[in-house]
Amino acid sequence: MSSPVAALYERRPFHDIVRLFSTVIDRRYSRILVITATLLLTACSSAVTPGKISQIHASMKSDEVKALLGPPAHIDQSETTGLHGEAYHYPTPNGEGRVIFLNDIVFKAEFIPGAKS
């Protein structure tokens, strides 16, 4: 003969309810995750345009460029006596934005239509 408490644990009346809420929450968060990822990818792919590249001027720092364009897809680095150079690459479907730095200050910013990096 089992006790009433043991019978309660054996039936687990709340087990189905908890599982139902867990499924609803998982579905809700998975939809939010998909929507957020889509928005982020859309924002990243369309962030660099010739208009935004034209807003970059000499003497801007790399932090200012990242605030305007976002993080680059990749960075090329080179160094020689007294100079440290970096090239930020921002590929887009219709070209590539490039920002060239010398000692962490913008030297040149350009948008190259049709370029693939």
* Unreliably modeled segments: 42-46
The largest pleated sheet is described as: 4 strands, antiparallel
At CATH level 3, the topology of the largest domain is Beta-lactamase Inhibitory Protein, Chain:B, domain 1
Q: Count every helix, treating DSSP H or I runs of 4 or more residues as helices.
A: 4
> What portion of residues is helical?
40-55%
What is the approximate shape?
elongated
Order of helices and strands: HHHHEEEE
Strand content: 25-35%
Radius of gyration: 26 Å
Quote the distance from N terminus to C terminus. Answer: 75 Å
What is the top-level CATH class of the largest domain?
A: Alpha Beta
Total number of domains: 2
Strand order of the largest sheet: 1-2-3-4
Q: How many strands? A: 4
Mean pLDDT: 77
Provide key terms for this protein.
117 residues; alpha+beta; Beta-lactamase Inhibitory Protein, Chain:B, domain 1; 2 domains; four-stranded antiparallel beta sheet; 44% helix; 29% strand
